[in-house]
Amino acid sequence: xxxxxxxxxxxxxxxxxxxxFRVEPNEYAVLMGPTGQGKTxxxxxxxxxxxxxxxxxLIYDQDVTKFQPGDRGIGYxxxxxxxxxxxxxxxxxxxxxxxxxxxxxDIVKRVEELSGELSIRHLLKRTIKALSGxxxxxxxxGRALSFRPSVLLLDEPFSALDEVTRAEMHGxxxxxxxxxxxxxxxxxxxTQEAEALANRRLVLLGGTLSESVAxxxxxxxx
Amino acid sequence: MAAEExxxxxxxxxxxxxxxxxxxxxxxxxxxxxPFEGPTQSASPSRQRSDVPFFLLMGGLSAxxxxxxxxxxxxxxxxxxxxxxxxxxxxxxxxxxxxLTLISCTVAAVLSVWVGTPLGYLLSRYKFPGRWVIDTLVxxxxxxxxxxxxxxxxxxxxxxxxxxxxxxxLRDGVGFPxxxxxxxxxxxxxxxxxxxxVRTMRVTFDQISPRTEDVARTLxxxxxxxxxxxxxxxxxxxxxxxxTISWARALGEFGPILVFAGATRMRTEVLSTSVFLELSIGxxxxxxxxxxxxxxxxxxxxxxxxxxxxxxxx
Lengths: 222, 314
Hints:
The complex is a heterodimer. Chain A is α/β, with parallel strands linked by helices. Helix content of chain A is 35%, strand content 27%. In chain A, the strands form 2 sheets. In chain A, strands 6-7-8-3-9-10 form a 6-stranded mixed beta sheet, with helices on both faces. A 4-stranded antiparallel beta sheet of chain A has the order 2-1-4-5, covered by helices on one side. Chain B is mostly helical. A two-stranded antiparallel sheet of chain B has the order 1-2. In chain B, helix 3 packs across helix 14, helix 11 runs antiparallel to helix 14 (284-313) and helix 13 runs antiparallel to helix 14.
């Protein structure tokens, strides 16, 4: 569960005030709205990369507003993916698990499981540079899900993919998120993507966040 | 994608199609004005122009500098003979100077990287009040006349603050005198070479996206872990480059060493001092031989840097 209570964020010249919303456990919500409205800023505030100057961020009813990003237990896939270039795919997947001091046996098991789910087992020994766009997305998703976070944040991860790969990724996301029961908040521009994935839509427009369950509201968004 | 790139694409599209387009989907920059108007077709198609004068001018000016360096080296080689070179290198003073140079430059380079990495990182990643002051301070050893730097070091160690003096305290209290001894050589080299290490490391970290660190932090890293596990491994080429530059800079250090460490044969003599000492007693052959030795050392260092540099840019 993700909840924002009257959150104020300032990022340079740009600011957002009074942002409140709630994503229920196991829900898949999309955050839509034109570019430059601050969707990414909201995501960064939730995972702790941007300071919140007012209000509260709650993850499963725990107030994490003052928590360090690493203590929040949130899986985050940024738009640029930011895979670790000096590591192999396997090392990227193991990264969060080693930080959490998992036993080597558990790490092997988890990587096996993840790479199977995401169909990247054949890529494990590859370096990041040698991956295609779709493969990189899978690895970034795997890295974010590796430590079994309760919350997953996706920032337009598929904007650079071609139609076919994107459809594939939608299917994959549906499976992965429903099996892991993770609460997901996903920024997207694509109404199609929202239709394919979400059971909840949030629209950020002119600094206000509105909830739109109705199809028509979401369609207005370019 | 860079914003300018998007603007340019947008401008191009507008110029071609003549309609305003929102390119939200492409990169998120919206412009309302037309950034440039295409030139009207005035040049006649039969006109042929040559790029030869351009290359002649650019090449000519460039060649003048290249020639200067090549001629300098060639003259050195022609002046000395292999026998002179061997005789000079067999002198115990010069061998001692060679050893001290290798050790002091290496220590100074390691210290420079050790200090330059955190400072370069902080300057690259954080905007803090007074950053420009620190940025300027770091450059001072680079722009300061070398003799002034040496003199400043000497004054720092011998300034009397009441009864207390840094050099006296180091000598009597710690049992580690600095001035006119080998530690002074290293400190003099370090004060300049560290500034270069900071510059190099700063550029290195500027080129490494802070995004990977951000993601590492969401995965459970503290800032320290993100730096050590994610950014530092990406910076290794920059670290070697910074070490090499520092080393080369320390090799060329002369003025501050002369003032702060003196030029005592077998004790504080480094190769640059050897050149000076041999020159001052009129032993031009040995001076040139040592110079060539230093040229060779510098070339090796530059080659390492080159190899790394091509790796960095690719």
